[in-house]
Design brief:
Blueprint (H helix, E strand, L loop, with lengths): L5 E7 L7 H12 L4 E7 L13 H5 L9 H9 L3 E9 L2 E2 L2 H6 L9 H4 L3 E8 L8 H11 L3 E9 L10 H14 L21 E3 L4 E4 L5 E6 L5 E6 L9 H20 L1 H11 L16
Parallel strand pairs: 1-2, 1-3, 3-5, 5-6
Antiparallel strand pairs: 3-4, 7-8, 8-9, 9-10
Helix pairs in contact: 1-7
The structure holds flavin mononucleotide.
Protein backbone atom coordinates (compact mmCIF):
# COMPACT_ATOMS: atom_id res chain seq x y z
CA UNK A 1 0.00 0.00 0.00
CA UNK A 2 1.25 3.50 -0.91
CA UNK A 3 2.42 5.43 2.17
CA UNK A 4 0.41 8.54 3.06
CA UNK A 5 3.48 10.18 4.63
CA UNK A 6 4.47 13.44 2.95
CA UNK A 7 7.60 12.94 0.87
CA UNK A 8 10.16 15.71 1.35
CA UNK A 9 13.23 16.03 -0.83
CA UNK A 10 16.22 17.78 0.76
CA UNK A 11 18.47 19.32 -1.89
CA UNK A 12 22.00 19.89 -0.55
CA UNK A 13 24.06 22.28 -2.67
CA UNK A 14 27.45 21.51 -1.12
CA UNK A 15 29.98 18.69 -1.49
CA UNK A 16 31.04 19.11 2.16
CA UNK A 17 29.75 16.05 4.03
CA UNK A 18 28.01 16.85 7.32
CA UNK A 19 28.56 20.50 6.38
CA UNK A 20 26.25 23.39 7.17
CA UNK A 21 23.93 22.88 4.19
CA UNK A 22 23.36 19.20 4.98
CA UNK A 23 22.87 19.98 8.68
CA UNK A 24 20.32 22.73 7.95
CA UNK A 25 18.23 20.47 5.69
CA UNK A 26 18.15 17.77 8.39
CA UNK A 27 17.45 20.26 11.17
CA UNK A 28 14.50 21.76 9.25
CA UNK A 29 13.16 18.24 8.68
CA UNK A 30 13.49 17.46 12.42
CA UNK A 31 11.47 20.60 13.21
CA UNK A 32 8.56 19.71 10.90
CA UNK A 33 5.69 18.72 13.14
CA UNK A 34 3.89 16.32 10.83
CA UNK A 35 5.32 12.87 10.15
CA UNK A 36 7.12 12.76 6.81
CA UNK A 37 9.77 10.85 4.90
CA UNK A 38 12.95 12.78 4.06
CA UNK A 39 15.24 11.86 1.17
CA UNK A 40 18.42 13.75 0.36
CA UNK A 41 20.01 14.66 -2.95
CA UNK A 42 23.48 16.23 -3.05
CA UNK A 43 23.16 18.29 -6.24
CA UNK A 44 26.87 18.88 -7.10
CA UNK A 45 27.49 15.14 -6.91
CA UNK A 46 25.43 14.54 -10.06
CA UNK A 47 26.73 14.51 -13.59
CA UNK A 48 25.07 17.48 -15.28
CA UNK A 49 26.16 18.83 -18.64
CA UNK A 50 25.52 22.27 -20.06
CA UNK A 51 22.39 23.02 -22.11
CA UNK A 52 23.35 23.05 -25.80
CA UNK A 53 20.39 25.18 -26.87
CA UNK A 54 18.89 22.62 -29.31
CA UNK A 55 15.26 23.06 -28.04
CA UNK A 56 14.56 19.39 -28.80
CA UNK A 57 13.23 18.96 -25.25
CA UNK A 58 10.37 21.26 -26.25
CA UNK A 59 9.78 19.89 -29.69
CA UNK A 60 9.54 16.26 -28.59
CA UNK A 61 8.04 17.13 -25.17
CA UNK A 62 10.01 14.17 -23.86
CA UNK A 63 12.60 16.14 -21.93
CA UNK A 64 16.27 16.70 -22.58
CA UNK A 65 18.18 14.56 -25.10
CA UNK A 66 21.53 14.87 -23.27
CA UNK A 67 22.51 11.60 -21.60
CA UNK A 68 23.34 12.58 -18.02
CA UNK A 69 21.73 12.70 -14.56
CA UNK A 70 19.14 15.42 -15.27
CA UNK A 71 16.19 12.99 -15.45
CA UNK A 72 17.19 11.36 -12.12
CA UNK A 73 17.15 14.76 -10.40
CA UNK A 74 13.90 15.88 -12.05
CA UNK A 75 12.16 12.61 -11.20
CA UNK A 76 13.22 12.97 -7.55
CA UNK A 77 11.83 16.52 -7.50
CA UNK A 78 8.61 15.64 -9.32
CA UNK A 79 8.06 12.68 -6.95
CA UNK A 80 8.37 14.82 -3.80
CA UNK A 81 5.51 16.67 -2.09
CA UNK A 82 7.82 19.45 -0.89
CA UNK A 83 11.41 20.67 -1.17
CA UNK A 84 13.99 21.87 1.34
CA UNK A 85 17.04 23.49 -0.27
CA UNK A 86 20.25 24.49 1.50
CA UNK A 87 23.19 25.89 -0.42
CA UNK A 88 26.46 27.62 0.50
CA UNK A 89 27.52 31.02 -0.73
CA UNK A 90 30.58 30.81 -2.98
CA UNK A 91 32.02 34.12 -4.16
CA UNK A 92 28.99 36.25 -3.33
CA UNK A 93 26.43 33.99 -5.01
CA UNK A 94 24.94 30.54 -4.46
CA UNK A 95 27.09 27.52 -5.33
CA UNK A 96 27.04 27.14 -9.13
CA UNK A 97 25.26 23.74 -8.95
CA UNK A 98 21.97 25.70 -8.75
CA UNK A 99 22.67 27.66 -11.91
CA UNK A 100 24.01 24.62 -13.77
CA UNK A 101 20.77 22.82 -13.01
CA UNK A 102 18.38 25.64 -13.91
CA UNK A 103 20.19 26.32 -17.18
CA UNK A 104 18.59 23.04 -18.27
CA UNK A 105 15.23 24.55 -17.37
CA UNK A 106 13.65 24.70 -20.83
CA UNK A 107 13.29 20.94 -20.48
CA UNK A 108 11.47 21.46 -17.16
CA UNK A 109 8.47 22.71 -19.18
CA UNK A 110 7.99 19.17 -20.51
CA UNK A 111 7.20 18.22 -16.87
CA UNK A 112 5.42 21.49 -16.02
CA UNK A 113 2.16 19.95 -14.84
CA UNK A 114 4.02 17.62 -12.41
CA UNK A 115 6.28 20.34 -11.07
CA UNK A 116 3.93 23.29 -10.68
CA UNK A 117 3.28 24.65 -7.18
CA UNK A 118 5.43 22.33 -5.06
CA UNK A 119 6.01 24.06 -1.68
CA UNK A 120 9.68 24.83 -1.09
CA UNK A 121 11.90 26.55 1.46
CA UNK A 122 15.54 27.54 1.00
CA UNK A 123 18.42 28.36 3.33
CA UNK A 124 21.55 30.01 2.00
CA UNK A 125 24.69 29.62 4.12
CA UNK A 126 27.28 32.39 4.24
CA UNK A 127 30.52 32.36 6.19
CA UNK A 128 30.68 36.14 6.72
CA UNK A 129 27.72 38.24 7.89
CA UNK A 130 26.45 40.43 5.05
CA UNK A 131 28.64 38.71 2.44
CA UNK A 132 25.94 36.44 1.02
CA UNK A 133 25.77 38.53 -2.20
CA UNK A 134 23.00 37.23 -4.46
CA UNK A 135 22.45 33.87 -2.68
CA UNK A 136 18.89 34.70 -1.59
CA UNK A 137 17.97 35.75 -5.12
CA UNK A 138 19.68 32.65 -6.58
CA UNK A 139 17.59 30.35 -4.38
CA UNK A 140 14.40 32.23 -5.33
CA UNK A 141 15.35 31.87 -9.01
CA UNK A 142 15.99 28.15 -8.49
CA UNK A 143 12.47 27.71 -7.15
CA UNK A 144 10.75 29.85 -9.79
CA UNK A 145 12.65 28.07 -12.59
CA UNK A 146 11.50 24.77 -11.12
CA UNK A 147 7.92 26.12 -11.07
CA UNK A 148 7.91 25.46 -7.31
CA UNK A 149 6.11 27.57 -4.69
CA UNK A 150 8.65 29.54 -2.69
CA UNK A 151 7.32 29.53 0.89
CA UNK A 152 10.37 31.19 2.43
CA UNK A 153 14.08 31.78 1.78
CA UNK A 154 16.58 32.92 4.42
CA UNK A 155 20.31 33.34 4.96
CA UNK A 156 22.09 31.70 7.90
CA UNK A 157 25.65 32.54 8.88
CA UNK A 158 28.35 29.98 9.66
CA UNK A 159 31.72 29.22 8.09
CA UNK A 160 33.03 26.10 9.83
CA UNK A 161 31.17 22.81 9.31
CA UNK A 162 28.44 22.63 11.98
CA UNK A 163 28.74 26.32 12.95
CA UNK A 164 25.21 27.16 11.77
CA UNK A 165 23.75 25.37 14.78
CA UNK A 166 26.19 26.70 17.38
CA UNK A 167 24.13 29.89 17.54
CA UNK A 168 20.46 30.19 18.50
CA UNK A 169 19.76 32.06 15.22
CA UNK A 170 20.37 28.97 13.06
CA UNK A 171 18.06 26.85 15.21
CA UNK A 172 15.37 29.56 15.14
CA UNK A 173 15.54 29.85 11.36
CA UNK A 174 15.22 26.06 11.00
CA UNK A 175 12.05 26.21 13.16
CA UNK A 176 10.61 29.04 11.05
CA UNK A 177 11.38 27.24 7.79
CA UNK A 178 9.74 24.06 9.10
CA UNK A 179 6.60 26.05 9.93
CA UNK A 180 6.65 27.87 6.59
CA UNK A 181 6.92 24.79 4.38
CA UNK A 182 3.34 23.57 4.73
CA UNK A 183 1.65 26.80 5.82
CA UNK A 184 -1.25 28.10 3.73
CA UNK A 185 0.41 31.37 2.73
CA UNK A 186 3.98 32.52 2.12
CA UNK A 187 5.48 33.61 5.42
CA UNK A 188 7.77 36.51 4.81
CA UNK A 189 10.62 37.42 7.07
CA UNK A 190 11.44 40.39 4.83
CA UNK A 191 9.43 43.55 5.30
CA UNK A 192 10.67 45.52 2.28
CA UNK A 193 8.97 46.29 -1.03
CA UNK A 194 8.36 43.32 -3.23
CA UNK A 195 7.50 42.77 -6.88
CA UNK A 196 3.75 42.41 -7.41
CA UNK A 197 4.39 40.16 -10.44
CA UNK A 198 6.51 37.47 -8.76
CA UNK A 199 7.18 38.41 -5.12
CA UNK A 200 10.88 39.12 -5.81
CA UNK A 201 12.71 41.44 -3.45
CA UNK A 202 15.81 42.35 -5.46
CA UNK A 203 15.77 45.27 -7.90
CA UNK A 204 18.10 47.11 -10.25
CA UNK A 205 17.79 50.89 -10.33
CA UNK A 206 17.50 52.10 -13.93
CA UNK A 207 16.89 55.62 -15.26
CA UNK A 208 15.07 58.03 -12.92
CA UNK A 209 12.61 56.14 -10.74
CA UNK A 210 12.53 53.05 -12.99
CA UNK A 211 13.40 49.72 -11.42
CA UNK A 212 13.62 46.15 -12.73
CA UNK A 213 12.88 43.05 -10.67
CA UNK A 214 15.91 40.75 -10.72
CA UNK A 215 13.75 37.64 -10.26
CA UNK A 216 11.18 37.99 -13.07
CA UNK A 217 12.80 40.91 -14.96
CA UNK A 218 9.57 42.93 -15.14
CA UNK A 219 9.91 46.75 -14.98
CA UNK A 220 8.31 49.15 -12.53
CA UNK A 221 8.48 52.53 -10.84
CA UNK A 222 9.49 53.37 -7.29
CA UNK A 223 8.08 56.56 -5.74
CA UNK A 224 7.67 58.23 -2.37
CA UNK A 225 4.06 58.83 -1.30
CA UNK A 226 2.83 61.87 0.69
CA UNK A 227 3.98 60.26 3.98
CA UNK A 228 7.47 59.75 2.58
CA UNK A 229 6.96 56.00 2.29
CA UNK A 230 8.29 54.26 -0.78
CA UNK A 231 5.77 52.62 -3.11
CA UNK A 232 6.49 50.26 -5.95
CA UNK A 233 4.32 49.88 -9.05
CA UNK A 234 5.15 46.99 -11.35
CA UNK A 235 4.06 46.67 -14.99
CA UNK A 236 3.68 43.10 -16.20
CA UNK A 237 5.19 42.78 -19.68
CA UNK A 238 4.65 40.30 -22.50
CA UNK A 239 6.20 37.25 -20.81
CA UNK A 240 4.95 36.86 -17.25
CA UNK A 241 5.96 33.28 -16.44
CA UNK A 242 5.93 32.84 -12.71
CA UNK A 243 2.67 34.02 -11.21
CA UNK A 244 0.38 31.17 -12.28
CA UNK A 245 0.52 27.76 -13.91
CA UNK A 246 -1.39 29.18 -16.90
CA UNK A 247 1.35 31.80 -17.42
CA UNK A 248 4.06 29.15 -17.27
CA UNK A 249 2.19 27.00 -19.80
CA UNK A 250 1.63 30.04 -22.05
CA UNK A 251 5.37 30.66 -21.95
CA UNK A 252 5.92 27.04 -22.99
CA UNK A 253 3.62 27.62 -26.00
CA UNK A 254 5.54 30.79 -26.88
CA UNK A 255 8.81 28.85 -26.74
CA UNK A 256 7.30 26.17 -28.97
CA UNK A 257 6.40 28.93 -31.44
CA UNK A 258 10.15 29.49 -31.85
CA UNK A 259 10.17 26.50 -34.21
CA UNK A 260 7.77 28.29 -36.59
CA UNK A 261 9.68 31.57 -36.27
CA UNK A 262 12.92 29.73 -37.05
CA UNK A 263 11.43 28.15 -40.19
CA UNK A 264 10.19 31.54 -41.46
CA UNK A 265 13.62 33.14 -41.10
CA UNK A 266 15.73 30.08 -41.83
CA UNK A 267 17.36 31.38 -45.05
CA UNK A 268 18.16 34.86 -43.67
CA UNK A 269 19.62 33.30 -40.52
CA UNK A 270 21.72 30.87 -42.58
CA UNK A 271 23.13 33.80 -44.61
CA UNK A 272 24.24 35.61 -41.43
CA UNK A 273 25.75 32.43 -39.96
CA UNK A 274 27.63 31.41 -43.09
CA UNK A 275 29.47 34.74 -43.07
CA UNK A 276 30.91 33.81 -39.65
CA UNK A 277 31.85 30.21 -40.44
CA UNK A 278 35.43 31.34 -41.05
CA UNK A 279 38.84 29.99 -40.14
CA UNK A 280 39.41 31.87 -36.85
CA UNK A 281 41.43 29.44 -34.69
CA UNK A 282 39.80 27.93 -31.57
CA UNK A 283 41.47 26.71 -28.42
CA UNK A 284 39.80 23.35 -27.71
CA UNK A 285 39.79 21.14 -24.59
CA UNK A 286 42.50 18.46 -24.65
CA UNK A 287 39.98 15.61 -25.05
CA UNK A 288 38.74 16.95 -28.41
CA UNK A 289 42.20 17.83 -29.83
CA UNK A 290 43.42 16.09 -32.95
CA UNK A 291 46.27 13.82 -31.70
CA UNK A 292 48.16 14.38 -34.97
C1 LIG B 1 35.15 28.63 -2.54
C2 LIG B 1 34.42 29.29 -1.39
C3 LIG B 1 33.90 30.56 -1.54
C4 LIG B 1 33.20 31.17 -0.51
N1 LIG B 1 32.67 32.41 -0.70
C5 LIG B 1 31.97 32.98 0.30
C6 LIG B 1 31.39 34.28 0.11
O1 LIG B 1 31.48 34.90 -0.95
N2 LIG B 1 30.69 34.83 1.14
C7 LIG B 1 30.55 34.18 2.34
O2 LIG B 1 29.94 34.74 3.25
N3 LIG B 1 31.06 32.95 2.55
C8 LIG B 1 31.75 32.34 1.56
N4 LIG B 1 32.27 31.07 1.74
C9 LIG B 1 32.01 30.36 3.01
C10 LIG B 1 30.89 29.30 2.90
O3 LIG B 1 29.71 29.85 2.43
C11 LIG B 1 30.67 28.69 4.28
O4 LIG B 1 31.85 28.06 4.71
C12 LIG B 1 29.53 27.70 4.35
O5 LIG B 1 29.34 27.33 5.70
C13 LIG B 1 29.78 26.44 3.54
O6 LIG B 1 28.65 25.61 3.63
P1 LIG B 1 28.77 24.00 3.63
O7 LIG B 1 29.36 23.62 4.97
O8 LIG B 1 27.40 23.51 3.47
O9 LIG B 1 29.66 23.65 2.50
C14 LIG B 1 33.00 30.47 0.74
C15 LIG B 1 33.55 29.18 0.89
C16 LIG B 1 34.24 28.59 -0.16
C17 LIG B 1 34.80 27.20 0.03
Amino acid sequence: MESTLKKILGIVGSLRESGNSEIMVKQISREIAEPHALKLLRLPEFNLNYCNGCYRCLMTRRGCVIQDDLATILNAIAGADALILAVPTYFLSAHSCLKKFIDRGISFYAHAEGLWGKPAVGVGIAGIEGKEGSTLLDMERFFTSLLAKNMRCEIVYGALPGEVLLKEEGKAIAREMARALFSATKSDGHQGLCCTCCGGETFRFENGNRVRCMLCSEAGRIEANADGQMTLTMEAGEHPIFASEAEALNHREWLLGMVGRFKLQKDDLANVRSEFADGTPWIRPAATMDPG
